[in-house]
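Raw record, unedited: FecR domain-containing protein
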Amino acid sequence: MSAPDDQALEWLVRLNDDRADDKLRAEFARWHQRPENAAAWAEAQAFWNRLAPVTAEMRRQRQVSRRAAMAAGGAALLTPLGFWLTRPGRFADYRTAAGETRRLQLDDGSRVDLAAGSALSVDFGRTRRDLTLHRGEAFFQVAPDPARPFVVSAGGAEFTALGTAFNLRLVTDRISLTVTEHRVLARRDSDETTVDEGQMLDLGQDGRGPRPRPQAVDPELATAWRHDRLIFAAAPLGEVMDVLGRNAGWTVMLSRAAARIPVTAMFSLSRLEEAPETIARTLPVRLSRLPGGVIVLRAR
């Protein structure tokens, strides 16, 4: 039998269907009598009640993205029944809408590629170059300046460039660093780790768990988003949907069980609309689409 949070998502979908009748509501009332079910439903319903301003913002971002694309030629929300409803980086120096990427030329000569649904702040001083990745993903190509370290803060950690190029991805429960040139010093609390070219380091945002170690990785795969592709290797579905949602402009709800399912896949950024159905066909999950661009995934 599925977990209560999966069942709560199932009921959310069924009760929002136009065909919901008194018989279905009576069945729901019986299910709701169990304390664990009532708790799961309260969490799901609270999230759903707060979705209206989020889906409105996502629709606005999609409109902005389409206008920007026409002129030239967030971020989606992910929650395992949690409340990721605030928008980090609302007042950031640079932001991208769903489906929009930007290339930034910074005052020091460094370049930044900002992925869709991302937010970045920049604060250059006399002794340090400080940046903050509030949400999303960015690729940094750092101009050398030994007198002013280039430091990016993200997910409760700091990343100091050691003459380098690197990629940072910030999702709901971790920050991933991939180094494509030279080295980066990663620091979280009192832990420091040097990550070399061709390595990846995953850090949990909450700071719990054993000290992570760098792992060998193909940098071209980790930065494929810069070339119209998203590639995942045994990544949890929660992370995958966070990235897909940022690019496509979806609001995503997942059960905890669904969020943990590992995914190995490649998606084209130009054909993301097909991705949820592809995931539902190939993984043990059930997919529903609700009004306002809301995608619901729960474990089968």
